[in-house]
Amino acid sequence: MIFLYQENFRIFSKNGSMIEFKNVPLASLRDLREQYLASLRYPQELHCEWLVAKGTCVSIETDVERVGYFVCSEEGQLVEFYLLDKMFTRKEEIFGRMLGEFQIKNAFCKSFDDLFMTCCHTFCRFCKIGGILFRFFTDEIVMPLPAGVTVRKAKEIDVPLLLTHDSDLYESPEELNYTVSKRMILMYEKDGALVGCGYLIRVLPDKDIFDVGMWVNPAFRRQGYAVMIISHLKKTCLKAGYVPVAGCAADNVASRRTLERCGFMTKHCAVVFEF
What we know:
There is one protein chain. By secondary structure, the protein is an alpha+beta fold. The chain is 28% helix and 33% strand. It has helices at residues 30-39, 46-53, 91-101, 114-123, 159-163, 173-181, 225-240, 253-261, and strands spanning 8-12, 18-24, 56-61, 66-72, 78-83, 106-110, 126-134, 136-137, 149-153, 185-190, 193-202, 209-216, 243-249, 264-265, 268-274. The two termini are 16 Å apart.
């Protein structure tokens, strides 16, 4: 993308104060990102966190201090935007110049990310719901593990087997290797056969908030195992004192119904904007 090769941009408002954009490493934004994450009314989305980790980070600075930042994914999609409170009166000016200077064409925004959402609505020409975000749940466990089903953490030795299954299990072999190495995947087996996998992934390193997800082996689908896996993951979280969250694509009706059957509730979404 074009913005990857341009170092700094300077813009001036009518009062003459300078705003400068600088490409920076993600680690340098740690303090601002902590403020951003604390400003969200509900927990961060894992998908966004992974996009940020691989994205391009740009700081927003005046001539005396850093006042905000934004992050674009590897594909150039805007996935995070933050300003200090004292800069809110200039949000439209900064956001508009940012879109133009960096040729940003689209954004992926959580509906509870108020500043980002407001700016996207101000400049967008089209928007649609791209994902459903689950941040509420009941304590009910609707399906305990049935007799004969065992659970264990996936290990490196399991990767060749997991790679033989359909691509719904993983986005890339690299991602699969990473999640297995961090013991983020649980394998559910019955009579020696792989029924499915559950994902239990800490969203942020210093928070006890875990994203839950599942994959069911095609040979075992439509038998209730999806509900079984999500129920077990939810129970595991609650027993450990963790907060389970989840998300799915807007068009993934089956996953949404499974999460809702397991007591997850939603009033938020991820919105895709086009500028």
